[in-house]
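quick one, 82 residues, struct below
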Amino acid sequence: MNIKAKAKLIWEYGDENTAKAVANAVEIDNLNLPKNLKIKTYPKDGKVITKVKYLGEIESLIVALDDLVFSIKIAEDVISRK
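---
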């Protein structure tokens, strides 16, 4: 069964430079996605905002969102080491 979904995820950092670094690191992963999945990640006011649009099976959406969260976590870890 296919679903149609929209989501907006917000990570708050309170620091514009950190938000920019995380968003830039993650946005690269959003290239070359399947046509039924659109993900846009960008920084705004010390936050990282990700907008998701999807049409397909729920399991594939869950996998994509899991990958996104994992990518955010890795970006945060790398940035915190600087």
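The chain has a mean pLDDT of 93.
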